[in-house]
């Protein structure tokens, strides 16, 4: 299999994966959690089972049309989401819930609307800063065109993960931003290993060896490593996903999708794109020479 | 076989085994001396998502009367610090964020997070007012406030002691108001309205009428810590109950063990002898990282555990890169020794560049995030740096030792010919 000659297919596969998510993103957006929108999450566990309708009644009686519903998760555990409540409102709600029976507070989170707005800005800023720093690093250690190709591959991974989260209405919180940054770190790691091989092979490039063949050979030489590394990370992530508890499930899922997408984009997008950039440069170069 | 090298190898395995036992195994818990320090893992700080606790962001608000200034923020922080210290939990975090916010983190299963937050944001502005509405003394004039319960009558009260200036003001006011009432207000609410029977020169007063000693204690703490200088609101609150915390800890531990065992088996099966060496290096890596966590007082959070497990992946990756190179060098026909050195040398550039970019992401994450996410960034960074170290020093040394001992000579065992 020649990775570079088949690159149109890889690009098409990437687009096929990204497009549905992208459309969903534009049409429906993301299912933003309270970290972004502001709001309250109260997770409680009753000592005895309480019917979900009762809980709903009590919440409604507080004048709180639980904006995103009430979720029952196993036994007598309830997740109650509401708009952002002031401390007194929370106290009243918690007292009212006590009328249904004794319960234990597992989690109580309240995020004011200003915090949410700031988080969005900070998240975008963090992503931008990380990308710029990576471009600088790769430009210094490799070359600018490779930096651009690597960043496009990263954008690919970010879009795949965000798209999947939008398509399946998975909740996006501040941990999601951390997941995206981790994915960028991982994916670029894969890309760099291949670029490193290309850099090395360029030094001992035989006369007449085409760029396509050289890059293809580099990808093949690093392929086992790429697959094995992803596999080891996937082992851990799958274990965390199934056994790690619900609190970090979405976080782990995001990284899992991202790591797999990252391995794909490193092999099938970053290096082929760089080849395209190089060929483009050569073509425009000859045109200039003619003129 | 070279017995000398073999002996060193056996010694290393024994030492690492001992270190591992000292770090993770609860076998010395009974011992009075060692039990205090071992196993090392119990000294890792747990974040509030793993042991329960509360993270609050308090926002100071301008009011028509009081504006938020740097000075008032400083006072606010001091007051909040005094209040938090009353909870008696280890290492609470109180830090200012931006111009008008305070982050407070209180970890520990023994406090009621809701109650804690409630008592943090109480203004606790105490005033003594005469009948014509004149303020005589305020909480700022207090020297001390102590709750007590009368052994005979069972009456619960808070005893107030004014500082000298306050005592003077209080003495003058009581002298001028004998037979009239002086109201005691807390946060503008009248809590008691006693009649002054005689002048009180000693600077002492009481508030009575509490239901329980706990209630009185809360008020006494608030009064002792002083009133908040500005209006404060809760901008963000994340409270985790101890049940959820320990549940998360148990589950992620179990998941971690399963994931790690899978990695170990995979490495040994796929890379054979070097895989076993890498597994051993991974154990050393885990021990070093644990020691760093303890030495640097790293707070372990739920995302932090995920980061640690991910960093195992990074550590393995460095080894994979090296072994793939080693295989290639062996296939070219180099001697084992030369192949190991060449493999490491050529793999190092890739390891360095790829980890540097991951580190960039982790550092940006550190500055972007707070709380658990910051813990994630710290653990990831420690992991990246340590894995670089162990992969290129420990694994290399071990491989040389194994190769030098002559224990295994067949290069197939080093992966050549596999795949």
Model description:
- The complex is a heterodimer of chains A (291) and B (419).
- Helices cover 70% and strands 10% of the residues of chain A.
- With 291 residues, chain A is α+β, with helices and mostly antiparallel strands.
- Chain A contains 9 helices and 6 strands; from the N terminus they run αβαβαββαβααβααα.
- In chain A, α6 (144-167) runs antiparallel to α7 (174-203) and α6 (144-167) packs antiparallel against α9 (249-290).
- Chain A has 2 domains: 7-32 and 115-290, Multidrug efflux transporter AcrB transmembrane domain (Multidrug efflux transporter AcrB transmembrane fold), CATH 1.20.1640.10; 39-111, Alpha-Beta Plaits (2-Layer Sandwich), CATH 3.30.70.
- Chain B has 419 residues and is α+β, with helices and mostly antiparallel strands.
- Chain B folds into 2 domains: 2-45 and 242-414, Multidrug efflux transporter AcrB transmembrane domain (Multidrug efflux transporter AcrB transmembrane fold), CATH 1.20.1640.10; 50-240, Gyrase A, domain 2.
- Chain B has helices at residues 3-24, 34-37, 48-51, 70-85, 113-121, 164-176, 213-225, 242-295, 302-332, 336-368, 371-405; strands spanning 45-46, 53-61, 93-97, 101-107, 126-130, 135-138, 142-149, 156-162, 182-186, 189-192, 204-210, 231-240, 299-300.
- The longest helix of chain B is centred in the middle third of the chain and has 54 residues, at 242-295.
- Chain B starts with a helix and ends in a 14-residue tail after the last helix.
- The model of chain B has no long low-confidence stretch (mean pLDDT 84).
- The interface between A and B is large, with 71 and 73 residues.
- β5 of chain A pairs antiparallel with β12 (231-240) of chain B.
């Amino acid at each position: 299999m020649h990775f570079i000659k088949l690159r149109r297919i890889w690009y098409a596969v990437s687009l096929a994966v990204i497009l549905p998510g992208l459309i969903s993103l534009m049409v429906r957006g993301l299912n933003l959690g309270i970290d972004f929108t502001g709001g309250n999450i109260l997770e409680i566990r009753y000592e005895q089972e309480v019917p979900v309708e009762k809980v709903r009644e009590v919440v409604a009686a507080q004048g709180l049309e639980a904006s995103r519903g009430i979720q029952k998760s196993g036994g007598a555990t309830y997740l109650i989401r509401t708009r952002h409540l002031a401390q007194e409102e929370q106290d009243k709600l918690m007292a009212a819930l006590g009328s249904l029976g004794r319960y234990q507070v597992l989690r109580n989170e309240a995020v004011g609307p200003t915090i949410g707005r700031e988080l969005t800005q900070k998240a975008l800023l963090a992503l931008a800063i990380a990308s710029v720093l990576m471009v600088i690093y790769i430009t210094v250690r490799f070359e600018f065109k490779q930096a651009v190709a690597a960043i496009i591959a990263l954008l690919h991974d970010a879009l795949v993960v965000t798209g999947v989260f939008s398509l399946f209405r998975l909740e996006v919180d501040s941990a999601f931003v951390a997941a995206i940054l981790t994915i960028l770190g991982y994916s670029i790691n894969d890309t760099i290993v291949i670029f490193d091989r290309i850099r090395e092979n360029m030094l001992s490039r035989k006369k007449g060896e085409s760029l396509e063949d050289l890059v293809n050979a580099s990808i093949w030489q690093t392929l086992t490593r790429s697959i094995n590394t992803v596999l080891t990370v996937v082992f851990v992530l799958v274990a965390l996903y199934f056994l790690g508890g619900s609190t970090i499930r979405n976080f782990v899922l995001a990284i899992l999708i991202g790591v797999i997408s990252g391995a794909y984009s490193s092999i099938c997008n970053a290096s082929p794109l760089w080849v395209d950039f190089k060929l483009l440069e050569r073509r425009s170069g000859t045109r200039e020479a003619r003129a | 076989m070279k017995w000398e090298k073999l002996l060193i190898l056996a010694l290393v395995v024994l030492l690492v085994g001992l270190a591992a036992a000292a770090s993770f195994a609860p076998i010395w818990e009974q011992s009075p001396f060692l039990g205090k320090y071992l196993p090392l893992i119990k000294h890792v700080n747990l974040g509030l998502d793993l042991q329960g606790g509360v993270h609050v962001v308090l926002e100071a608000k301008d009011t028509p009367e009081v504006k938020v200034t740097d000075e008032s923020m400083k006072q606010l922080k001091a007051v909040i610090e005094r209040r938090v210290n009353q909870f008696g939990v280890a290492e609470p975090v109180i830090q200012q964020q931006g111009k008008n916010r305070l982050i407070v983190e209180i970890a520990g299963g023994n406090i009621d997070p809701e109650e804690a937050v409630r008592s943090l944001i109480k203004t606790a502005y105490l005033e003594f007012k005469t009948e014509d509405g004149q303020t005589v003394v305020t909480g700022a004039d207090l020297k001390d406030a102590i709750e007590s319960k009368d052994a005979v009558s069972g009456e619960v009260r808070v005893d107030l002691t004014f500082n000298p200036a306050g005592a003077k003001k209080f003495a003058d006011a009581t002298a001028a108001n004998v037979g009239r009432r002086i109201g005691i207000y807390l946060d503008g609410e009248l809590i008691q309205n006693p009649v002054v029977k005689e002048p009180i020169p000693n600077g002492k007063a009481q508030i009575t009428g509490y239901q329980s000693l706990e209630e009185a204690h809360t008020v006494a703490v608030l009064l002792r810590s002083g009133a908040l200088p500005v209006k404060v609101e809760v901008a963000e609150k994340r409270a985790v109950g101890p049940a959820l915390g320990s549940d998360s800890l148990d589950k992620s531990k179990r998941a971690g063990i399963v994931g790690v065992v899978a990695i170990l088996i995979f490495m040994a099966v796929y890379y054979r002898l070097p895989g076993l060496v890498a597994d051993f290096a991974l154990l050393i890596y885990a021990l070093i990282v644990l020691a760093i966590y303890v030495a640097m007082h790293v707070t372990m959070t739920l995302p932090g555990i995920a980061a640690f497990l991910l960093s195992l992946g990074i550590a393995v990756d460095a080894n994979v890169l090296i072994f793939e190179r080693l295989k290639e060098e062996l296939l070219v026909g180099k001697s084992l020794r030369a192949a190991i050195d060449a493999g490491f040398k050529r793999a190092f550039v890739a390891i360095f560049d790829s980890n540097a970019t991951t580190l960039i992401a982790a550092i940006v994450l550190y500055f972007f995030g707070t709380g658990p996410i910051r813990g994630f960034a710290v653990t990831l960074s420690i992991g990246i740096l340590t894995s670089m170290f162990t992969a290129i020093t420990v694994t290399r040394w071990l491989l040389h030792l194994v190769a030098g001992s002559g224990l295994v000579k067949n290069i197939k065992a080093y992966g050549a010919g596999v795949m």
